[in-house]
Amino acid sequence: MRMRKKLAITIGDPSGVGPEVLIKALNSKGLLSALSDIFIVGDSAVIKRAIMLVKPDFNINALKIIETGIITHTNFKTNSPNKQCGEAALSYIKMAVDIALKGDVSAIVTAPISKTSISLAGSTFKGHTEMLADLTNTKDYAMMFYGKPLKIILVTIHEAIKDVPKLLDKENILKTIRLAQKGCKMFGIKSPKIAVSGLNPHNGEGGIFGTEEIDFIIPAIQQAKIEGIDAIGPIPPDVVFHHAYKGVYDIVVCMYHDQGLIPLKMIAFDRGVNITVGLPFVRTSPDHGTAYDIAWKGIADPSSMIQAIKTARRLRVNT
Fold first, then answer.
1. 1-138+279-319 is classed in which CATH architecture?
2. pTM higher than 0.85, yes or no?
3. Does the fold of domain 140-278 match that of domain 1-138+279-319?
4. CA 129 from centroid of its chain's CA atoms
């Protein structure tokens, strides 16, 4: 069965598990027959080695490869952060974005990168999300995560817990609620029910445990309702995910990273998918890191990469 769209998939940090889980994913049921619709962005030296490790039902000639030539057989280092792999990973992302913006593909899937490696290569980005937004001149964007049946979206991303309260304001929360609606529509949900989590225990108990709900979260929800968005809340964090899991809500707007990622990884640790909402094209990635400790040993689990590719096939922008 042919894919409904063309994808670009980066191999991520060559030193990590990205190349291995990608080859395993492409060899899985439902994807093996779709290789002609996929562009692999990564160096042949790395891909050949991953094929030798995985021994899939295809050879390198079956793949459409877009490469930089940065990583060769002689300079390839595995299982640890290094500048060269950081340079390669950054180049793969830029190439994938370029062909997506040209319209050659309608979605990109990104394998994990190392923040240490890209920093060694001179990057100041905290990760994929910020870099993709910069490369596409996207101002309003958010990280959404999907692990059936949960969808969560983050108001703040990679920030210290102590900094979260001062980073919250009505506009940031409202923007995320709007992006939550857009993210649900990418899944084909026309009128999503959007749960907005509180920040403090018991929603602050009327200000006793904190006033962020009163000061920012409730005003953002009220404005979203005026705009016709079905936003509900704030709902205490220790309650909202249970109801979302049961299907009461389509997505949960979370105030900070771990508030949303802990429940999602509890139910979908090996199959979670990261989605960037707001870009001019679909972007997904596995919800795990480079896993240097198990990389290039043939034991990495491809489940999250498989789900990232399948989700990229499913999603649509501008719906």
1. 3-Layer(aba) Sandwich (3.40)
2. yes
3. yes
4. 8
